[in-house]
């Protein structure tokens, strides 16, 4: 993967649950993490007493953290509403020349900050709440 422009990374949400996605932010900095827990299946008769893992048995999860500026007042209100209501919605993270991650996420953190001589920025954390899909773009 060659170097990409960070400004092309987008975050979209299906705010109403009608499968219509709207862009809420262009993110300035983002971290997308995937994790899979392992399940230890080691037994007394494991060869050489080496640990054995059970394939495909652990929990999978994804988290997304990002910061930036909201697209407009409506997208700011949408995200705030989803957070305060604890709503789980389908989100899309579009990563240029990599692909798109889509699936249900819940907002687990929402922070606002600003300087006296600058714009208001936000930081957002999403936790996966179901199966995710990946599409190469």
Summarize the structure.
The chain is mainly beta. The protein has one helix at 73-85; strands at 10-13, 22-36, 60-70, 88-95, 99-114, 120-128, 133-135.
Please indicate the percent range of residues in DSSP E strands (runs of 2 or more): over 45%
How many discrete domains?
A: 1
Category from helices, strands and their pairing: mainly beta
Main-sheet strand order equals 1-2-3-6-5-4
Give the overall shape: elongated
The helix tally amounts to 1
**Could you describe the largest sheet, including whether it forms a barrel?**
6 strands, antiparallel, barrel
Helix content percent band: under 10%
Question: What is this structure's SSE topology?
Answer:
Layout: E1 10-13, E2 22-36, E3 60-70, H1 73-85, E4 88-95, E5 99-114, E6 120-128, E7 133-135
Antiparallel strand pairs: 1-2, 1-4, 2-3, 3-6, 4-5, 5-6, 5-7
Summary tags:
elongated; mainly beta; 137 residues; six-stranded antiparallel β-barrel
Describe the protein in words:
- It contains 1 helix and 7 strands.
- It has 137 residues and is mainly beta.
- The longest helix has 13 residues, at 73-85.
């Amino acid at each position: 993967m060659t170097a990409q422009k960070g400004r092309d990374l987008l975050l979209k949400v299906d705010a109403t649950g009608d499968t219509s996605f709207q862009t809420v932010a262009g993110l300035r900095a983002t971290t997308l993490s995937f994790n899979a827990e392992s399940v230890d299946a080691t037994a007394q008769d494991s060869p050489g007493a080496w640990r054995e893992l059970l394939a495909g048995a652990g929990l999978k999860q994804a988290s997304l953290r990002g910061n930036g500026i909201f697209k407009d007042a409506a997208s700011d209100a949408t995200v705030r509403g989803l957070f305060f209501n604890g709503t789980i919605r389908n989100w899309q993270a579009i990563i240029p020349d990599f692909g798109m991650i889509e699936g249900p996420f819940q907002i687990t953190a929402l922070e606002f900050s600003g300087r006296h001589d600058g714009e208001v920025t936000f930081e957002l954390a999403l936790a996966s709440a179901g199966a995710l899909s990946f599409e190469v773009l």
